[in-house]
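Why does this matter for the project? Reviewers at the last site visit asked to see concrete outputs rather than summary tables. In response, this paragraph embeds two records directly. Each consists of the residue sequence and, immediately after it, the corresponding structure tokens. Nothing has been edited or filtered.
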Amino acid sequence: MRVLIMGNSGSGKSWRARQLAGQHQLRHLDLDTIYWVPGSVAVARPAYEVLADLYAFVRGHDDWVVEGCYGDLIEAALPFCTQLVFINPGKDACMANNALRPWEPHKYASKEEQDSMLPYLMEWVSQYDARDDTCSYAFHRRVYDGFQGAKREDAPPSGDGS
């Protein structure tokens, strides 16, 4: 089983990925962990390094779940997956989940540092339908609609904090 999960920040991708990984003994990759410079806030790594890490992960494990909002990275991993999941609960659910997000020590040195970024994150999430970047609804929709393999679009339980 090789599952790709995409959606807006706060959509429940991490929650769903952890659930699948636990149920099926899958290796789990949160794309944030390879996209951003470790120990830095909102500093992206060079694209070639990110892609190299992504390809090493999907080629290096028989069974996995990869999740993130980076549609271009999801698209790059499509040839390796057995299922694509698009979690699309709507902007309001994503905003509510982000407001409840627990501290993510793999992303931030402290809960205070994470909380200091929340206004920026909320603004970014609120623009999901209007943005035209690779993390936008339009990009995710194009990737999902164009994928010819097994796929599903759904929403997680609300209030899970992912």
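We now turn to the second protein, recorded in exactly the same manner.
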Amino acid sequence: MAGQVELSERLLDYVRSVSLRDDEILRDLIAETAFMPAMNAMVTMPEEGQLLAMLVGLTGAARVLEIGTFTGYSTLCMARALPPGGRIVTCDISERWTRVAQRYWERAGVRDRIELRLGDGAETMADLLAENGAETFDLVFIDADKAGYARYYEAALTHLRPGGLAVLDNTLYFGRVADPEADDPDTEAIRDLNASLLTDSRVELSLLVMADGITLVRKNDKVQSGRDFS
């Protein structure tokens, strides 16, 4: 059995040359974000955005919830993949960054498919639950503050329909999750969540060794109580 290929810059360039289908709008958004001090590392990698769009199509998702908008790259990718009448609700705490996002959504012609909510992610999820009830979203994408991931994940399972998909970004967290000397709160939060997902019998699970780690979590059609995996 072959081992994991080490992804050098040269190999990444090759992968993008044979598989990436971005366009001028997406490239311009990445370029603008790159000029923001200390913020360019937060933008979604283009191949991840393309994967998110494919996942929207594969799941037939018409209702998408995104926790963490930033400058709106992933939002744009998913919005483009929605079926007619589809909608994405995206939430963030920053008015500054989401102003950038809205310019590009307008330019791409998908602004009418996107509902932006500013405020705390957990509070927004609670508001949506009160407004719409449970199991009303087909896909939830989580890419926000790492300390809040466990809360967002639990809320996501409530919002997802049976068979729905949660996508969690940064679950390898710059490789720090495997470093025993890394004990900062964000690394510990991701490490603890990863460990808990393994024993969560409510879902199917796959952690993709891609970008900064992308975990796919499919809510079981019949969610059972308890978290022991057998």
